[in-house]
Every structure is written in structure tokens, then in C-alpha cells.
Design brief:
Elements lengths: L13 H8 L17 H9 L3 H9 L15 H4 L13 H11 L3 E5 L5 E6 L17 H6 L2 H12 L3 H4 L13 H11 L3 E6 L2 E7 H10 L11 H15 L6 E6 L2 E8 L2 H12 L6 E8 L6
Parallel strand pairs: 6-7
Antiparallel strand pairs: 1-2, 3-4, 5-6
């Protein structure tokens, strides 16, 4: 198939070049002449935003608006993805070497398909026959101890494979769980780490040290425009109302980011909470503390 080419006889005048640059399709009139755009329309077209200008605008750094609340951090932001793991058949001595060599307090146990089967922690290895620390009960205590519990203690102290000493019931988390929820689970369950799963498959682990590193990396958000005094006052009073029930006795004034706080508080910890709230309010430059402890009545 032969491609057809239509050759225009109109000379490439400045008007013609401008029309082509603006993407205008010149259509010949009845006399075979190209109708050109009037100059007024050309000037208006040149003033419009072109795709290149839009791309340049997209490249400009975007700043969050003043007072914007950042999205909460999730497990995916801080978790360790390169997880050291063992299999159910890994010898207990090798598991102990992994914990000691990697300086970690627990190691997940995974199956051949990467699914999480359990976890071996330091607490599961401190009662071992090799070092003479297995649990010993007197004869009269054995009378009151469940036989299955006694057998489980024996397996944990003398078993030679990871599945003998692992904890099969593992508290886990997902990648989209917020760090606030993770911290609550760790605190409530008294755990040092949580395996991260996607379905049943192990994809990472998050520990207390990961949360500490997140604190170390934290930086105060940058704002395109500093908050106004009214915005600072509004935000600070909202925080004060949260940290103390005596917020109606607190008077706050703001001038050019300099905060003056006066009033009565019931305790030193309440006073410290108000000052910390002021320090964390965006836009605050300095704090004048004129808070007074309420005198306690003596009966």
C-alpha cells in the first residue's frame, strides 16, 4: 500500500509556522488558499498554558498547607524486609547461633512456601538441658501439675529441632497497620517484635528498635507559609483542652509566634503537658511560661 502525501503550496510564512506550532489544522477555502488565524486569536493562544509549561509546574516542589496533618506512619514505612528465618528442622544449636550472631531476640520459623509457622525467642531457649537450666519440680508439685504441661516442658528443654522450642501461636501484623496500633499491641502483650504477614506468608518483621529508629528519623514538617497568630492560638488552645481539664483557667496570647501562657494548674505534670503542647504547635517561636500551681487546701 502506497502512502499518500498532500503537499501544501502555501509558503511557510511566520503566520503559517505559528499555526502549525499551536496545533491548528489549516483547511483550504474554496479558492485553495489557507485560512490563517487572526493575530488576536494567536496572541490569546500563546498566552495559554502549553503541555511543557504544565510539566514544568508539576516539577515544582509542592509544600503541604499550614496546619496540614501528615498521614500516619504504617508498618510498611519502618519494617525490616530482609528477615532472617529458620525452618522447623533447623537444629536448636543453630537457632541459638543465629540469635547470638545476628544480635536479635527472636527468629521466625517458616515453611517451604514461606508461610509463618511459629517463632523462637530467647525465652524459649533459657530452660535447656545442655546448660542445666531445665525446670525441675519437687515431687509434691508434680502431683498438682498437668501431665501435658510436664511433657511440654520436657520437649522444650530436650528437643533438638526448632519446632520443639518454637511458639506456634504468633501475634502478627500487616503492612498497612499504623504504628500507633503496633505500639499498643506491643505494650499490651509485652512483645518486642511482630512478624509482618501478607496472607500467611512472612514478608517482614517490625520491632521496638524499628519504632525507635522512626523517632530518630522524624523531622518537623515544613510549611510553605508560616501559620498566622490566630492559627497558632487556635491549634494551641485545642491541644490545651485535651491535656488538662482546667483549660478554662488558662490564658494564651500569641504575638508574631511568641506565646504567652498564664493561669492556674493543679500539678507540675499538668504544667509540663501544657508547655509540651505549646512546643509542638506549628509556628511557635518562643514560650513565656507564667503558669502557677494551684495552692492545695490544708484541712
Amino acid at each position: 500500500m502506497t502512502a499518500r502525501h498532500h503537499r501544501l503550496t502555501e509558503p511557510l510564512t511566520p503566520h503559517r509556522l505559528l499555526s502549525l506550532a499551536l496545533g491548528q489544522s489549516p483547511v483550504p477555502d474554496d479558492g485553495g488558499r489557507i485560512a490563517l488565524m487572526p493575530w488576536r486569536l494567536r496572541r490569546e493562544a500563546l498566552g495559554r498554558s502549553t503541555p511543557n509549561r504544565l510539566q514544568d509546574q508539576d516539577r515544582r516542589p509542592q509544600h503541604p498547607p499550614a496546619g496540614a496533618v501528615p498521614s500516619p506512619l504504617t508498618v510498611a514505612d519502618v519494617m525490616t524486609r530482609d528477615v532472617v528465618s529458620v525452618s522447623t528442622a533447623t537444629p536448636v544449636s543453630e537457632v541459638a547461633n543465629v540469635l547470638a550472631g545476628k544480635r536479635i531476640s527472636a527468629v521466625p520459623v517458616v515453611g517451604a512456601d514461606g508461610s509463618l509457622l511459629g517463632i523462637v525467642s530467647e525465652s524459649g531457649l533459657i530452660r535447656r538441658a545442655e546448660i542445666g537450666t531445665e525446670r525441675r519440680r519437687s515431687w509434691w508439685r508434680k502431683v498438682f501439675v498437668d501431665i501435658s504441661a510436664e511433657a511440654s516442658d520436657y520437649v522444650r528443654a530436650h528437643g533438638r529441632k526448632a519446632h520443639h522450642v518454637m511458639t506456634p501461636q504468633v501475634v502478627t501484623t500487616t503492612e498497612d497497620m499504623t504504628l500507633a496500633d503496633v505500639a499498643a499491641v506491643m505494650e499490651k502483650r509485652r512483645l518486642k517484635r511482630l512478624p509482618v504477614v501478607r496472607g500467611k506468608r512472612l514478608v517482614g518483621i517490625v520491632s521496638r528498635s524499628d519504632l525507635v529508629r522512626a523517632v530518630a528519623r522524624h523531622r518537623a514538617p515544613m510549611f510553605a507559609d508560616p501559620p498566622t497568630d490566630d492559627a497558632i492560638l487556635r491549634d494551641l488552645m485545642a491541644q490545651v483542652a485535651v491535656v488538662t481539664p482546667s483549660y478554662r483557667l488558662i490564658n494564651v496570647s500569641v504575638h508574631r509566634g511568641n506565646v504567652d501562657i498564664a493561669g492556674l494548674v493543679d500539678s507540675a505534670s499538668e504544667r509540663a503537658a501544657i508547655l509540651v503542647a505549646a512546643e509542638n504547635t506549628p509556628g511557635v517561636r518562643s514560650i513565656q511560661d507564667r503558669l502557677i500551681l494551684r495552692p492545695r487546701s490544708v484541712s
